[in-house]
Write a structure and sequence with these properties.
By secondary structure, this protein is mostly helical. It contains four helices and two strands. This is CAZy families GH8 protein.
Length: 110
């Protein structure tokens, strides 16, 4: 189940989401067609962490900007402080796992 190399089923959607959110407001909620909704993301740090991890899958998609986009997401994640206040537990849990994955220190053999 995906342990034998890159899973092509997630490359394209991950790359599309990563590219989309580099050029759109990451605090806004969007419909599947890209229409902005009148809502704010409840877990902005968690959202950033998950998208940064997903951008790594997109590197293998061979999309023209996939590598540059992934590097930008890693930079965004690296420059993001841990969340404080309400909803910090969920966000910071994703933050920690994202940092492990992005640094190459989260493995399936644990």
């Amino acid at each position: 189940c995906g342990m034998g190399g890159p899973d092509t089923r997630i490359m394209r959607p991950s790359g599309g989401a990563a590219a989309f959110f580099l050029t759109h407001d990451r605090t806004c909620v969007y419909d599947v067609d890209g229409t902005a909704l009148d809502e704010s993301v409840l877990h902005p740090v968690g959202f950033l962490a998950a998208t940064a991890q997903g951008s790594l899958a997109a590197i293998h998609s061979m999309a023209p900007d996939a590598q540059a986009n992934a590097l930008e997401w890693v930079r965004l994640m690296w420059d993001t402080p841990m969340r404080t206040g309400k909803r910090r537990y969920y966000d910071n849990f994703l933050y920690a796992f994202s940092m492990l994955a992005l640094s190459g220190n989260y493995h399936d053999r644990w």
